[in-house]
Every structure is written in structure tokens, then in C-alpha cells.
Amino acid sequence: MLESRVKETIQDAAQKLTGARKRAFMAKVAIDYFDGSARKTETYLGWNRKSVQLGLHEHRSGITCIDNYQARGRQSIEAKLPRLEADIRDVVGEHTQADPKFQSTFGYLQVSARAVREALIEVKGYEDSELPTRQTMGNLLNRMGYRLKKHKK
């Protein structure tokens, strides 16, 4: 069908493009060399068939789809549970201690992330399944400006 040099050149060009430009290029290659078939393009060039189909659709309709990259990934726990930070501050308020030398702005906690998690379940009525894990709770406390002290034995 295509020579290996031509195939490599096409793949290199597609790799250097992104978003709508890449899809438009893929659609043009599919139309010119593979009879507008996304499946043939996928088989021969190894491109994602759905991307080629979307490019062909954009080419036919004249409407370019906008990529929503911000919606990708996992939502932060603060976005899922907006009251969580305020509830954590209520729970850990009496267990917080300022830096004795006032060298940092962090508040030091005398309780563990596990204890904070358990207190949220008992006191604030959260379900176990909706709260983050102990590790994530520790990360959240760090983001909020708290530092966990190690337990002395």
C-alpha cells in the first residue's frame, strides 16, 4: 500500500501534531490513502480508530470538537466534599499546637490521620466509604497547613 519511508514520514508528522490539527491530519490521510476507513487506518498505521473517526466526522461536518483536558483525571477530595475542610478544622481544633519557636506557620497535630478520619465518622457523621484513606487524609492535612507529629513511645 504505502512504502515504509512514506509510512514513517506520515507517522512522524502525526506524532508532532496535537488535538484538532492531529485529527484533521489523520482524517486527511484516511481519506487520501485508505478510502476514508478509520479501521484500515488503524490497522495499517496503528492510530487510534476513535481519533480517526472523530477527525473524519469533524472533516465531514466542518465543526471542530474542543478538547476538555481540565475534566480529565480524578477530582480532588475537596471538590467532592466541600464541607470536609471545615469539619476537619472543627475536629482537630483542640489538638492543634503552634510551633513553640514560631519559626513556621504550620499547626502541629497531636493526633494521627487515622484518628482524624475516625473522629469525622463518629462526630460529623461521615460514611466510611465517602472519606479518603488514611494516607490521603494525611496529605489533605498537610495541604491544610497541619503537620503530624510522630508518636513518642
Can you characterise this structure?
The protein has 153 residues and is mostly helical. It has two domains: 4-61; 77-148, no CATH class. Helices cover 54% and strands 6% of the residues. The chain has a three-stranded mixed sheet. Helix 1 packs antiparallel against helix 2 (19-33) and helix 6 packs across helix 7. The longest helix has 15 residues, at 19-33. The protein is elongated. The model has no long low-confidence stretch (mean pLDDT 85).
SSE class? mainly alpha
CA distance, first residue to last residue: 73 Å
Q: Helix share of residues? A: 40-55%
Beta-strand percentage?
Answer: 5-15%
Order of helices and strands: HHHHHHEEHHE
Principal-axis shape: elongated
Mean pLDDT: 85
Count of helix runs: 8
| Record field, number of beta strands | 3
Low-confidence segments: none
Strand order of the largest sheet: 1-2-3
Radius of gyration: 27 Å
Largest sheet: 3 strands, mixed
Question: What is the gist of this entry?
Answer:
The protein is mainly α and 153 residues long. The chain has helices spanning 4-16, 19-33, 38-45, 49-61, 77-80, 84-92, 113-123, 134-143, and strands at 96-98, 107-109, 146-148. The radius of gyration is 27 Å and the shape is elongated.
Helices and strands, with pairings:
Blueprint (H helix, E strand, L loop, with lengths): L3 H13 L2 H15 L4 H8 L3 H13 L15 H4 L3 H9 L3 E3 L8 E3 L3 H11 L10 H10 L2 E3 L5
Descriptive tags:
153 residues, 2 domains, mainly alpha, 6% strand, 8 helices, elongated, 3-stranded mixed β-sheet, 54% helix
